[in-house]
From TrEMBL:
The keyword Signal applies. Residues 1-22 form the signal peptide. It comes from uncultured Aureispira sp. This is EGF-like domain-containing protein. Keywords: Signal.
Length: 167
């Protein structure tokens, strides 16, 4: 009787441990995912899209920033109002393109740094005579705030602005 119970316990133990070891053996999860107990799980910062692939959460979050915006800017030089558009970068999943930026510049690009923030890295515009740098934040539905600096490359003039984008 004792041998039967011992045999049963050992058999069950081997069965369960065998299943655990093989649960992810033949499963290929692809990029940005790992297998956990036989199921592909997206890594942190990624989520499954409609094709069941793990993509950056920034791809979804980018849509919060895209569209046509009414802009009210408070700059060190003056106060401005104009219309600007923000679109998804055509090839870079973590980037945006801002047009009519500062009521003057097209193709100012921004890099998503989180689901609610982006950075405008230092870039040259106006035939390499102007630098632009800054950061933006999605504040709530229909509201983005961008703080940035525009400076002439020769250092003779600069303008610091806080832009309020609303839909």
């Amino acid at each position: 009787m004792k041998q039967s119970i011992l045999f049963l316990i050992l058999s069950l133990g081997l069965t369960f441990s065998s299943c655990d070891n093989a649960s992810c053996g033949d499963i290929l999860c692809g990029d940005n995912a790992s297998c956990v107990q036989g199921t592909c799980t997206c890594l942190q910062g990624y989520e499954k899209n409609n094709n069941d692939l793990c993509v950056s959460t920034l791809i979804r979050a980018r849509s919060n920033f895209t569209g046509t915006w009414a802009v009210s800017e408070n700059c060190s030089s003056a106060i401005y109002s104009f219309i600007s558009t923000i679109v998804k970068h055509p090839t870079e999943d973590d980037q945006l393109i801002l047009s009519n930026f500062y009521d003057s510049y097209n193709s100012v690009y921004a890099v998503m740094t989180s689901e609610t923030t982006f950075e405008i890295p230092l870039q040259l515009h106006n035939s390499n005579r102007v630098t632009i740098t800054g950061e933006g934040m999605y504040e709530n539905p229909g509201s983005v705030i961008i703080n940035y600096n525009i400076e002439l490359v020769d250092g003779t003039s600069s303008d610091y602005c806080t832009a309020f984008y609303t839909k």
